[in-house]
Amino acid sequence: MMLTFLVATAATQAASLRPGVSSVSFAKLRDLAEAGHSDLSVLHEMAGVVNSIMLQEGNATDHLTASDQELLLRVIDMINNKMYASMNSAHNSDVSDVDDAIAAINRCSILWTARSADGGDLYAMHQTLIQYQNSLNDLEDRVDTRTLANSTAWSNLVTHITLMSPAPECPAFPDPRTMPTLDVYFGSSSYVTWWLQSQQAYLPVREAYRYANLQLKHALLAYAVGLAQRNTAFVTGNASLSLVARSTKRATGSQRSTTDWS
User: Fold this and answer.
1) Are 115 and 121 in contact (CB under 8 A)?
2) Most confident by average pLDDT, 80-94, 114-128, 192-206
3) Which end of the chain lies in a sparser environment, N or C, as judged by fewer CB atoms within 10 Å?
4) What does DSSP assign to residue 63?
5) Strand runs labelled E in 184-251
6) Alpha-carbon distance 193 to 187, whole Å?
7) How many other C-beta atoms can be found within 10 angstroms of the C-beta atom of residue 188?
């Protein structure tokens, strides 16, 4: 360790340490050493004090005492055996955690690939949801087509009603009622002619609208049913996928899962 080499050379630099300042530093170092060397933060502070001692150069003629040298060597041993050992242990633990996480991810990937491939339960569920969605798309297309047909039929009916010729005047019943007057009255009627012709022209247009409107109502009802079925399938699929995520987590030993399907 570089720190070991630097601290060891401190004993040969006794003449370069400032009087007073070095004694204060050694006093602080001794207090830290006695306070508890198992605390990693204390070990870091001790290393800082040692570094400070070696940087305090001057023209002093004092030499390190045997006690100071013993303290430095003891601190070196603490740092090597405690701080660096703790750092190595933490590093090894991190490496182990990363390896475990990678292994869990690989197990999860293998399991997910198998279940989502053709023949897997997730694949089958996905295909079912696609079928529901495709059916709903077809029902929506039918609604659009029949909405257009209904609008067209209604427009035709309104146009026909608007363009109908007005009814001719209906003659009053003859008075006095005699055979000649009744023969003329029942001989012909412009109103009857108009009524029969207008009826024959009106009824098909009206029935076309009624049929188109009824077909639209059926399409809307079918779409509502299909939408409810699709939504139910999606909710069920989402719940099933949540169960899959939890079971996969247990099977792979992973610590967390972010799978979501909406």
Assistant:
1) yes
2) 192-206
3) C
4) -
5) none
6) 12
7) 8
pLDDT > 80? residue 214: yes
Torsion angle in degrees (nearest 10) through CA of 38, 41, 47, 50: -90
Closest-CA residue to 237 (of 136, 138, 128): 128
End-to-end CA gap in the chain: 56
Handedness of CA 126, 129, 133, 138 (dihedral sign): positive
Residue 205 near residue 157 (C-beta atoms within 8 A)? yes
3-state helix, strand, coil in the chain (%, to 5): 80, 0, 20
Ordered DSSP codes for 101-119: HHHHHHHHHHHHHHHHSTT
Give Cα separations from 250 to 111, 116, 149, 247, 260 (angstroms).
12, 18, 56, 5, 17
Mapping DSSP to helix (H, G, I), strand (E, B) and coil, where does residue 243 land? helix
Strand partners of residue 57: 17
Band the pLDDT of 204: cuts 50, 70, 90. very high
CB atoms within 10 A of CB 195: 14
Contact at 8 Å (CB) between 18 and 58?
A: yes
- Name the phi and psi angles at 57, rounded to 5: -95, 150
Lowest mean pLDDT among 51-65, 76-90, 221-235: 51-65
Does 259 have pLDDT greater than 50? Answer: no
Contacts of 26 (CB under 8 A, 6+ apart): 53, 68, 71
